[in-house]
């Protein structure tokens, strides 16, 4: 669907009809259907059904690989848990394990994180799950600070290689004016006054009572 610019300048181009920030592409380190992707130094649990000696918890190495008996070295980087399980099954099938059944779970991830900054109790990096939303990300940071500007919450995201920003209002989300937006790995959330928020000032002055988030391409 073609989106006409609402306001353009040398700083940003705000688009109408966006409804919210679009999901990043897989190339932006996550996919539209929001699977968690395994990355270097993530901790995973591999369970081989009926072969307890092969089941184990392990850390993906810095190059994104794992090593297992009878399996050898497998590239795990950029795979979902299901894709890695299939790769381990294929390796075992040729090494004396009949009809192997493998499950993989991501126990902890250092590569799939969101940055929460600004007027929250505990700014920092937080793990992203496939159910992460803006409200849940802020809750991970122990909530808004006492005098936080909840109408000034910016999400920064790369979509198809282009940097985008979305201006959200926490109070509007809480009262059901629009949906709590999904959060993805590598998103940056800034609560309160920020350089990104100030880029929206001309648009907000024209439309102070926003019924939907503002979405912009950053120049």
Which helices and strands occur, and which strands form pairs?
Blueprint: E1 5-8, E2 12-15, E3 43-48, E4 56-59, E5 65-68, E6 72-75, H1 81-93, E7 102-108, E8 113-118, E9 124-127, H2 134-140, E10 153-159, E11 162-168, H3 170-174, E12 188-191, H4 195-198, H5 201-206, E13 214-218
Parallel strand pairs: 8-12
Antiparallel strand pairs: 1-2, 2-13, 3-4, 3-7, 5-6, 8-9, 10-11, 10-12, 11-13
Notes on the protein architecture:
The protein is an alpha+beta fold. The chain folds into two domains: about 5-30 and about 110-219, Outer membrane lipoprotein wza domain like (Outer membrane lipoprotein wza fold like, Roll), CATH 3.10.560; about 45-110, 2-Layer Sandwich (wza like fold), CATH 3.30.1950. It has five helices and 13 strands. The strands form three sheets. An eight-stranded mixed β-sheet has the order 1-2-13-11-10-12-8-9. A three-stranded antiparallel β-sheet has the order 4-3-7, with helices on one face. A two-stranded antiparallel ribbon has the order 5-6. Strand 3 and strand 4 (about 55-60) form a beta hairpin. The longest helix has 13 residues, at about 80-95. Mean pLDDT is about 80; it is low at about 1-10.
